[in-house]
């Protein structure tokens, strides 16, 4: 989905634009709007230069929480800021580290573009729903189970407060669910289970999943996440929406499909789950997303794994 229909936006800013989702978004914006100015801001702590090998825009190599954004963007017309910069490792438990980077970076973005005509889209997370089972709806009370999820709740809180003071601007939050796809290899242990299981299977190892593999996740292919993120920039009003497939699938089904595309027959190696904050079931209610953003997921689990495999799922 192209921004504003046929109208050309002049300048996009993507924080975290060299990371997994950020690089996929940046390159899609470049494809859709070849004449637009695009500026990526990334400190490369959770990114890799190879993600942007074909990128033609500007890059500011700094921490978004420390940078003087006015120095770079004062008096410039910025059409949309996509704020994806974040510590993405949900097992990083240093509370000050997580809170400072995730919250203060967001505050810096909001303060800089307050009172302008700039639209802002930011990455929240399904982790805000906690470990409760069932269908997750944006209006339900957040139950963050770790510091990462807690910081994402604070992003949502700051966005709501900011809107009360800047009611003429548009800001859209997207609660990303379990995203997988190309350009995530650099994340290592923080990469999706799809990628990690495939790497194990590539070595001939049985894929390790928690007993008994029937935990279900809302796995969503990164191409669908990019489409939803682009669509959010053209939303008619502000809001917080789920960004998922809406179809939870089990880890056993993931292994089954990886065996299918890789031509292997490796049975799962079931292990104990050591994480007290682990989400046993995630499922996005995307009805409000479809209605407000006019976009639907295009990739089932099978189609997503097929496309990922063709794009280099097994690349190191």
Compute the gyration radius: what is it?
19 Å
Major β-sheet strand ordering: 3-2-1-4-5-6-11
Helix proportion:
25-40%
Residue stretches low in confidence (pLDDT < 50, at least 5 long) are none
- The overall pLDDT average reads 93
- Strand composition percent: 15-25%
Structural class: alpha/beta
Question: How many DSSP E strands?
Answer: 13
Number of helices: 9
Structure description:
The structure is a single chain. With 316 residues, the protein is an alpha/beta fold. It has 9 helices and 13 strands. The chain has helices at residues 20-32, 69-73, 95-113, 147-165, 193-202, 222-232, 251-262, 287-293, 301-310, and strands at 11-15, 37-41, 58-60, 80-83, 119-125, 171-176, 178-180, 208-210, 216-217, 219-221, 239-243, 249-250, 269-271. Strand 5, helix 4 (147-165) and strand 6 (171-176) form a beta-alpha-beta unit. The protein starts with 10 loop residues before the first strand and ends in a 6-residue tail after the last helix. The mean pLDDT is 93.
């Amino acid at each position: 989905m192209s921004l504003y229909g046929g109208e050309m936006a002049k300048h996009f800013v993507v924080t975290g634009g060299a990371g997994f989702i950020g690089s996929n978004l940046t390159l899609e914006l470049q494809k859709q709007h070849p004449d637009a100015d695009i500026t990526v801001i990334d400190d490369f702590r959770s990114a890799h230069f190879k993600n942007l090998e074909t990128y033609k825009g500007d890059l500011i190599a700094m921490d978004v929480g420390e940078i003087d954004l006015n120095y770079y963007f004062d008096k410039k017309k910025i059409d949309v800021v996509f704020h994806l910069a974040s510590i993405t490792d949900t097992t990083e438990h240093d509370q000050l580290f997580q809170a400072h980077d995730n919250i203060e970076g967001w505050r810096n973005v909001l303060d800089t573009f307050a009172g302008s005509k700039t639209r802002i889209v930011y990455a929240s997370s399904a982790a805000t729903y906690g470990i409760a089972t069932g269908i997750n709806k944006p209006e339900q009370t957040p139950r963050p189970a770790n510091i990462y999820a807690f910081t994402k709740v604070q992003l949502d809180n700051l966005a709501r407060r900011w809107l009360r003071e800047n009611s003429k601007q548009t800001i859209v939050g997207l609660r990303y669910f379990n995203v997988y796809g190309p350009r995530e290899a650099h994340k290592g242990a923080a990469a999706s289970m799809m990628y990690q299981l495939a790497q194990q299977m590539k070595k001939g190892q049985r894929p390790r999943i928690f007993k008994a593999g029937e935990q279900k996740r809302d796995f969503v292919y990164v191409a669908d996440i990019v489409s939803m993120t682009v669509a959010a920039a053209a939303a008619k009003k502000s809001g917080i929406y789920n960004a998922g497939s809406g179809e939870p699938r089990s880890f056993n089904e993931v292994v089954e499909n990886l065996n299918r595309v890789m031509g292997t027959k490796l049975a799962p190696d079931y292990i104990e789950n050591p994480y007290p904050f682990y989400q046993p079931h995630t499922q996005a209610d995307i009805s409000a997303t479809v209605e407000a953003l006019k976009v639907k997921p295009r990739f089932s689990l099978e189609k997503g794994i097929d496309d990922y495999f063709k794009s280099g799922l097994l690349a190191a």
